[in-house]
Amino acid sequence: MYNKIGDTKSLSQRIEEEIEGAIRIKKLKAGVKLPTEIELSKSYGVSRNALREALRSLNSKGLIRIEKGRGMFVNEFSLNQAVSSVNLFLEMNTSKDNLLQVIRLRQMFEPEIAAMASLNRTDEDLRLLKKSIESMKNCPAGALKKEALEDNKFHKLIAEATHNFSVSVVMNPIYSLMPRFVDFVYGKTGYKRGNTLKFHSKIYRLIEEQNDYEVRKVMKEHLSFTELSFQEIKS
Asked: Residue 1, Cβ neighbours under 10 Å: how many?
């Protein structure tokens, strides 16, 4: 690799695509040190400016990291990097209508996620879920943002209790958006902590009992209630 680049696309785009392709097929593996800028620019037959533009783009995608004084390395691609672009897209397109669509997406996925969690949960998962419920109970009166974060945490813990990596990849961008509901739902409706705690406690008990059938139904009720609360202020 590192052959001279043609001119059907911009030089920086061609360099970026070639290095990214090599990383995708693991020709360049995580931890590998790339040649220096001078070496790469000579290999590709391009200016260092074109090369730097490509490297900046690869760095912004999280595919490589640039360490001052050490060089450039292929990154280990993490879950956070995998979902960051989706997180950004959702955050940049937040509106009441889009948040309603997110609620309905959750209604499609989370009942099945809860059912999977009930079958795969460990004692440690149960401990963390119970701790989350207690943390919400202990929130000071009127601490709506803290309550919302605990609500979100509870649902993330259920996803983690599935012990299915793909669930976290799909759902983490959705959960990262949940704090946006604070202003829309928690602050502008007749929200009562007891309603959420009632659902969380029941869901916890069914996961503990490994009752996948019933926990599907209760999770669906919980999210339907969330939608009704949201609809109160949608107009």
From this structure: 10
Does residue 180 lie in a domain region?
Answer: yes
Q: How many CB atoms lie within 10 A of CB 137?
A: 14
Cα dist from 33 to 2, 67, 118, 154, 211, whole Å: 14, 10, 44, 40, 50
- Pair 109, 210 in one domain: yes
Alpha-carbon distance of 49 to 54, in angstroms, equals 9
Instruction: Give the tens place of pLDDT for each residue, 132-161.
Output: 999 999 988 777 778 888 888 999 999 999
Q: Is 61 helix (H, G, I), strand (E, B) or coil?
A: coil
d(CA 124, CA 119): 14
Dist. CA 37–CA 34, nearest whole Å: 9
The token duo for 58 is 């690869």
Residue type, 19: I
Mean pLDDT of 119-128: 98
